[in-house]
Each structure stands twice: as C-alpha cells, then as structure tokens.
TrEMBL record:
<dbReference type="InterPro" id="IPR017136">
    <property type="entry name" value="UCP037205"/>
</dbReference>
<protein>
    <submittedName>
        <fullName>DUF2256 domain-containing protein</fullName>
    </submittedName>
</protein>
<dbReference type="Pfam" id="PF10013">
    <property type="entry name" value="DUF2256"/>
</dbReference>
Length: 50
C-alpha cells in the first residue's frame, strides 16, 4: 500500500452505522478481519446482539 492516493484506498461499509470507512495504516495486517469503523460501533454491535 505504498504511494497510494487516499481516494484509491480500499473501503468497507460498517454493518452497525452503515457508513463507509477507508483502509488505515494500523489495519494493514488485519484488514480482512476489520468489520467496524470504530470502537463505538464494535461495542454497539455487541449490545444489539446480546
């Protein structure tokens, strides 16, 4: 992911809030496992299902 413009980064849609979010450097090694755009959405998904 070196020298890639921001508009060309991969995107996913958060299943909780429905907003699109882009690839981040801190998610480089775990991008396939990332489901939520934020810790807030991740915690809200657990409240809704449990």
């Amino acid at each position: 992911m070196k020298n890639v413009k921001k508009e060309n980064l991969p995107q996913k849609t958060c299943p909780v809030c429905g907003r699109p979010f882009s690839w981040r450097k801190k998610w480089e090694k775990v991008w396939d496992e990332v489901k939520y755009c934020s810790d807030r959405c991740r915690s809200n998904s657990k409240k809704a299902s449990g």
